[in-house]
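During the second year of the project, the team shifted from modelling isolated chains to modelling whole assemblies. The rationale, set out in the original proposal, was that interfaces cannot be judged from single-chain predictions alone. As a representative example for this report, we include one of the complexes processed in the last quarter. Its constituent sequences, exactly as entered into the pipeline, are reproduced here:
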Amino acid sequence: MPRWGMAADLDRCDGCGACVTACHAENNISTVGPDQASRGRAKHWIRVERYWEGEFPDVRLKFRPVMCQHCGNAPCEPVCPTYASHHTEDGLNAQVYNRCIGTRYCANACPYNVRFFDFFNPSWDKPLHLQLNPDVSLREVGVMEKCTFCVQRIKAATIQAKAEDRKVADGEIKPACAQACPAQALVFGDLDDPESAVSRLSRSSRGSKLLEDRGTEPAVTYLSRQS
Amino acid sequence: MTHPSHSRINSDLLRPILQTSWKFYALVTVLGGIVVAALIAWLSQMYFGFGISGITWPVYWGFYVTSFVFWIGISHAGTLISAILRLVNAGWRRPVTRCAEVITVFALMIGAMFPIVHLGRPWLAFWLFPYPSERLIWPNFRSPLVWDFFAINTYLTGSLLFLFLPMLPDFAVVRDKSTGLRHRIYSVLALGWRGTPKQWHRLESGMAIMAVAIVPVAVSVHTIVSFDFSMAPVPMWQSTIFGPYFVAGAIFSGIAGLLLAMAVLRRVLHLEAYLHPVHFENLGKLLLVMALLWGYFVFNERLVTYYGNEPSEMAVFWRTQRESFAPLYWTMVIGNFVLPLVIMGVRRFRTITGCVIASIGVVVGMWLERFLIIVPALGHKYLPYSYGVYRPQLVEIIIAAATFAAMALLYVLFTKLVPIISIWELKAGEHPSPDLMPPGNEEHRLGELHL
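Output from the structure prediction step:
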């Protein structure tokens, strides 16, 4: 059984936001419009956080793409009263939309604030409604949603590999964000395979986990910026 | 203290039930109107989407959860205070206990609605209940919200019994004094109470058992409510002090609620002969003790956080202490600590008016306390990029305000149906007479009901 994880090389990330756009398209994430977004209700399963260091004009800009960290010890999971938020065998932090009743407790418990609530039923301006991904379910009002590591792609590749009686090759599965990243800052793969690209990057001396001291054991490793 | 005569007790305490003025209907209409407005607000929230509330990323809990914790807190007025006063056999408790027990039941009913009101999909609330489904899906017993479900239901059942048991003899009094439909209804409610020595003894042991059993239940309820917060890794939430801190705050706000209810009842139902200044003074002293205890807990919580100097906690700490939430924070400190300490600490001010002023301060302060625990921390979790602001919207304000109207409405209706002061306990305490009392024996001497 693989254990899926990701590495994000902050040296490569230039904050272009292609990952955010790709994620919206792949996962049928509805846009909420400027009014709701200004109230802080935009849903970005992956976001590019910007931090400035120093005083103007001598400032340094830093980017950090943040998505669900798929914690090995996820605070969102035990607090959910209905098991909507739960852990899969392959290390994913899954969210069952149909089982979610919207207590929003998981989002409060999440130290990364990567869980998003559907405040209204989703809608798309025409003709965007024609581009919905048939592999991903739509979420109705009142449920929580979040990054799945593109579980539909993981499942498709796993089933394909099983049909061909082989293992999933390293690099065969690419979540939408990793696929869209022009600088290849995001690398996805099996952490339990010591030879996989993501495992080698995760062991890098530049690697660290986000809010590691919270004890959440994230599956995402950030490679610190050198330049 | 003057004791009203036997028949005057009956007529005074049954008057609100047997006679109804237009003022009653006017009050019920106004309060009922506010409750209906809240119902419409909630329905429109379901119809238009949860987005019409002010809840936002990342402050996912706001007025609803504040109201939940606040009302569960108020519910500790009753059963807990009345149980303790019964256990220590405080004679002055007699006119007070039922007022308090009623607050418990109604405050719990109001508070227990909020876990459902605040759901994104309230029509699926039954998934929180542990019922055997064909798919064998159970609720997650590791979730503090499921613990809440059990704790609140246990407490509600227990406090309903605790309220209902000592009402039996009074239902019998109303049954004997009324005719027609009212007679038939109270006959059913009185469960065949005839006041035989055997019945008195059973009532007495039932009350003794309930009084002992309800105390740990009440303490556990608010501890578990505090677990909703202390189990989540949110700055200033993950605190071992939250259990006792919440229980102390709950009893504190409960006493304040009880004092306010008593003051209103005394004025409106003309119970001056029953609710004496000494009752207010005694409860006022209790309020003073709890104010000191509350101050002690807040001092502990704040000092340990400050000394620990953990960055994310300090961000929330300063946010309440001197930044955007500071006006609310210091209002809370004045209402919860300064005001009760000054008013209740000075004997001259420990009057009914003084109690009412201090209690209003405490109710406001405790509501703010719950709000200040929830919102500043959620808006200021670890990653500065995801800081956020909560602005309550009309729908939440209406619903939160209507809880107070709902409490008043339920209370008004209750006083119309049941004597708000326990008639038999009053008589038993102040006019010991053989026909009202269990027969005296070694353990239970006349006039000393160990209830």
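The interface with chain A takes residues 48-51, 55-58, 60-61, 115, 118-122, 124-125, 127-128, 137, 139-140, 142-146, 149, 228, 231-234, 378, 381-386, 388-389, 391 of chain B (CB under 8 Å). Chain B has one domain: 15-127+146-430.
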